[in-house]
Amino acid sequence: MTDKSGPVGAVPRQRDTRLDVFRALALLTIFVNHVPGQYLEHLTHKNFGFSDSAEAFVLISGMSVGLAYSRFAVGERLAVTLRILRRALTLYVAHIMTSIITFAIFAGGALWFSRPDLVSEINLRAVVDRTEQGVVSMVLLGHQFGYNNILSMYAVLFLMLPGFLWLYQRGPRLLLAVSGTIWLCAGIWRIAPSNFLDDGKWFLNPLSWQFLFAIGFVGVLRARSKGIPRNALLFALSAIYLAVSMLWVVLGWWHIDFSYGLPAVLTGFDKTYLSATRLLHVLAGAYLIATIPVLSNWAALPLSHPLVAIGRHSLAIFIFGTILAMAGQVLMFVTGKNPFFGTLYVLAGIALHFAYARYLDWQAEVIADHAKRQGMRALPVKGRDGPKR
Known about the structure:
Largest sheet: 2 strands, antiparallel
Order of helices and strands: HHHHHHHHHHHHHHHEE
Number of helices: 15
Number of strands: 2
Helix content: 55-70%
Number of domains: 1
Strand content: under 5%
Strand order of the largest sheet: 1-2
């Protein structure tokens, strides 16, 4: 891609709306996938390749964090670290809040529709049966409900971020080497945070997913300084891999064994430990998008575009979408998983995403305008007797 702001594939130094646009698409796709059983779910890209919107979201998040927190000079380390820890706390609180609301939605559905079976869905039953242990486990991130596991993983990634920044200052290759080693060891020896109420592990293992996060972090800073070169061989390999991946999923080639005794993290399709097949799929797609001008330029939308608004308010939109999706799941259960009603609900939910993003923009404008007026009132006014307030 060539543009007026820099070399081929360069990321502009002002706010890059392309990240907002692709993050918005990932958020909308997550919402669609989190209401299973309706028609739109079959159109999302998880049906045409090894990875899904979760991988895209984490990769884009790593890129956004790279642009936001790359400055880690000696005199700024404490301030930056405190900002990062505050963000991690925000994500943790958001996770707990959405988990409680999710429980309330399903419990309310069980009461309202006389469907006690609802509290046995999405891993709720353990908290119902063992309330004291369940509540403590939720707060300590030792028990997670289904479809409520991205924010907890993301919060842990932020706790790891100061270490990433320290390693990056000593060399991007060192960061990738350490991060890749952690990913490989976690996958080989199945190392992941444990759940307290059963013998399972976290569905999204932060020790594995941090590698994708680190790749996004390093990649965007490399792109900002040197651009993304279009290598013909890498371009062809990426396109071939995406095509094979699509055929594999669409034609159901899951019975083919190509492990050759290698660890599952290298040859399997596991989401918890982010197998290499999934990792390479999202990276191949990202490379093609970055190096095909029509795709990259299309996403460079103005700040006022609705998709940019959704991506810009990513955390609030994600929480909003999660709550809508949980209500949608209850709707699906009480309607006998009718795909028609589910599709109508999801379409309405997508429209609400845009409306909520517009509301958040309007709210920010009101606050900014109020602050501006307050600042103008605080300015000194010069009179005959000197400055007055």
